[in-house]
Amino acid sequence: MTKTWFITGTSSGLGRLMVEKLLARGDTVAATLRKEGSLDDLKAQYGERLWIGHLDVTDTAMIRKVIDSAFSQLGRIDVIVNNAGYGLFGAAEEVSDAQIDRQIATNLTGSIQLIRAVLPYLRAQGGGRIVQVSSEGGQTAYPNFSLYHATKWGIEGFVESVAKEVAPFGIDCLIVEPGPTETQFAVGLDHARPLACYDNTPAGEIRRMLTSGTFEVKGDAARTVDAMIATADGEKPPFRLALGSTAYASVSQVLTERLRSLEEQKEVTFSADRAS
Ligand SMILES: NC(=O)c1ccc[n+]([C@@H]2O[C@H](COP(=O)([O-])OP(=O)(O)OC[C@H]3O[C@@H](n4cnc5c(N)ncnc54)[C@H](OP(=O)(O)O)[C@@H]3O)[C@@H](O)[C@H]2O)c1
């Protein structure tokens, strides 16, 4: 049976590929973007099955307007994909206040407000699925990506809580966590002005890897999107889906370490209970 999807950030990368693949298999897609014209080729090919909306996810009023018009024009929407996002690159004291505000407004507040805007519609139609594109960086942390991590860890906490609130309405959530994947992500990075004091630190090392092109990107965008769609199609998808061997290795390592550390402190942890 065909489905209807709503996807943000579809001018390039994972979002664009997802639109292409869903249309090619016969689904209907409401695709939103900032760059007018980016999907004109697909519109010419698929006509009515592609609904295009202009949306900058940092504009909450615009989110509500686009969601209202997508549901009123398309009726039921089965899957909402919160995909729009980008990375801010720089050590915490290198990035500017304005860069921080934009990163949080896009990746965190944008995703939160989109979910808040769709929930009344999903409840009214008796259910639906929310796919939140996070990152392996929603569970791990590299130097120079602290603000990006803050948004991805933040959205994971938000979605995990909301999933429990809305399960009784037949709404479920899937958090997707790709590792480094070949899209426009590296091109779209917002770079902070470097401070020389970080040159000989892990942050400086990551910067050199990025600028010299030695930062390893193993993820294939098309295969990542195939896995996202196949999992989102499932009757009972997992709550989190790590994608790519890099994501698997890093998430596995941090979870193992976190559990080991928790167990090691068990006595101290329990000592904080009220004496009964
Ligand atoms: N590629 C990776 O290595 C990787 C790994 C883990 C997670 N992710 C996540 O995957 C998602 C998609 O990224 P991608 O890899 O496909 O990169 P991409 O090719 O750069 O695509 C990002 C998309 O987000 C859109 N976008 C950015 N800011 C926006 C805003 N304020 N409002 C609306 N749209 C906005 C961009 O639109 P414009 O063209 O208008 O800028 C573009 O369509 C992001 O959430 C990213 O954090 C990527």
TrEMBL record:
Pfam families, A to Z: adh_short (PF00106)
Alphabetical keyword list: Oxidoreductase
KW Membrane (keyword) present: no
Gene Ontology MF annotations: oxidoreductase activity
Domain of life: Bacteria
Family to which the UniProt record says this protein belongs: Belongs to the short-chain dehydrogenases/reductases (SDR) family.
Protein name stated in the entry: Short-chain dehydrogenase/reductase
Species annotation: Aliidiomarina soli
